[in-house]
Amino acid sequence: MKIDVSKPILELNDNIAADNRNLLDKHKVFVLDLMASPGSGKTSLILKTIESLRERYNIAVIEGDIASDVDSQRIKEQGIPAVQINTGGACHLESQMIKKALSVLELNKLDLIIIENVGNLVCPTDFYLGENDKVMILSVPEGHDKPLKYPGVFQASSAIILNKVDTMPVFNFNEREFRGSVSQLNPEAVIFPVSAKTGSGIELWSQWLSDRIEKARQSWG
């Protein structure tokens, strides 16, 4: 006899996530779940996104890390509300954690919440948090073969951000193979080549995110 212990865990998570989504819909807040490996440039990308969109939207960030609050402090220095979640070893965020974070944010004053998930390309994929979109970042130094090694995160993402493209000449990154692999796994996913360091590509990425927010607003009425 085989017992699948993951099913009740995910069911409980999804039920709480649905409550999160209902709360966010009530306040008309769009939520982005940003997934990536450690060192891919998540926080730098978030800061560039905030810089691009802060005149249009009121933004907050939920930072997920195993330990420390270094990233949330960087966000707060820009005058943006940030809630730190330390998982104490867990490799992903869960909906109950997000529920607690939402309880300390002034949702009636927000338009966009960006969740920086724990650095991991496996675990965060399976856990719905109540977000509108999952988006993942892959940095050029990680290699073009990551879609083949971690297909789940690419399949779950509405968009793929290829970060650190300014380092392309230094690394043996085959962008054509990368795009081909992503297209096979998730033909609907949009790929945004960006450099959070130089700002290249941030405008197109930010416009896509803005379009998603406006589409959600139309559904809210």
What does this structure look like?
- This protein has 221 residues and is an alpha/beta fold.
- The protein has one domain (29-220): P-loop containing nucleotide triphosphate hydrolases (Rossmann fold, 3-Layer(aba) Sandwich).
- Helix content is 40%, strand content 18%.
- The protein has helices spanning 6-27, 42-53, 70-76, 95-102, 146-149, 151-156, 175-185, 202-220, and strands spanning 30-36, 59-65, 82-86, 112-116, 133-139, 159-163, 190-193.
- Strands 3-2-4-1-5-6-7 form a seven-stranded parallel sheet, with helices on both faces.
- Helix 7 links the parallel strand 6 (159-163) and strand 7 (190-193).
- Helix 1 runs parallel beside helix 4 (95-102).
- 41% of the residues are buried.
Summarize the structure.
The chain is an alpha/beta fold and about 220 residues long. About 40% of the residues lie in helices and about 20% in strands. The protein has one domain (about 30-220): P-loop containing nucleotide triphosphate hydrolases (Rossmann fold).
Set out the fold topology.
Layout: H1 6-27, E1 30-36, H2 42-53, E2 59-65, H3 70-76, E3 82-86, H4 95-102, E4 112-116, E5 133-139, H5 146-149, H6 151-156, E6 159-163, H7 175-185, E7 190-193, H8 202-220
Give me the CATH superfamily: P-loop containing nucleotide triphosphate hydrolases
Anisotropy-based shape: globular
> Strands across the major sheet, in which order?
3-2-4-1-5-6-7
Strand and helix order: HEHEHEHEEHHEHEH
Average of pLDDT: 93
CATH topology: Rossmann fold
Largest sheet: 7 strands, parallel
Helix count, DSSP H or I runs of 4 or more residues: 8
What fraction of the residues are assigned to beta strands by DSSP? 15-25%
